[in-house]
Structures are given as C-alpha cells and as structure tokens.
C-alpha cells in the first residue's frame, strides 16, 4: 500500500493500480473509488501516517503525546478540576516533582496544556484543543456504556 495524492492535493491510500486507473481509499471516510493514473502522484509518506490523519488533530495530538495512564490522568484532572497550581498537583497526587515537571513539559510542548496563574502561583490548565480531544474520547466511552446491558437486582440483564 502507498500514499498517493490527486491533482487537487487530496491524499489517498493506493489499493490497486492498473494501466489507466487506480483504486484508492479516502482515509477520512473510507470511501473507495477509481482515479485516473495521470491525476495521481506518489507521496513520500507512510500509508500508516496517512491513515492516522483521518483522526481529528486534537485527538491525534493527545494520543501521540500521552504515553501512560498517569499522564492521561493528569490531563483529565486538569480538565475536571483545573486550572491547578503546581503545589496543588504535587500535594494531591503521588508524583515526584521531576516526574511532574517532565509530564507538564511534554504536555505544554504538545499544546495540550498551558501555563497560567493560580492564586498568584504558577499553574496549568488544559487548552481548548485538549478539551475537544477529551470530549471525543469521553463520548465514545458514553456510547459504549449505553450499549452495555445493565444488571438488575435479580441478576437478569436489561438494555439501557
């Protein structure tokens, strides 16, 4: 599989090439169609990178910069309780100062959190992009929860 681009700049995943036309898939919506070969150009991008671009930018940023549950928890807590001062973060959560500083630096560089003033001291809050990414992830969890049958007291299951 290769990444190709048509004459309008739209990128596709190349599925099959014949003499005159190629079968391509649009990674954003999964639609497949044939495009004339003279309208396509090979692109020096991994097909996996192209596929990843079908994910909304804020979500992609969150997924590629949060590498463990503690860091995700930090982001979630800042979204729920924030903005929070550095002292509050150190006191409330079992994390050493150097680990906290490292996580905050990575999240700030990614544009997921930003520094702010909290009661006259340095603190952090999530950015709008981070809030949007979390909303997408949470909505998928809510959708899943709605699909899961709930147990009633007699042990039988019922739909939501």
TrEMBL record:
Pfam families: DUF7346 (PF24037). SUPFAM superfamilies: Winged helix' DNA-binding domain. This is HTH domain protein. It comes from the Archaea.
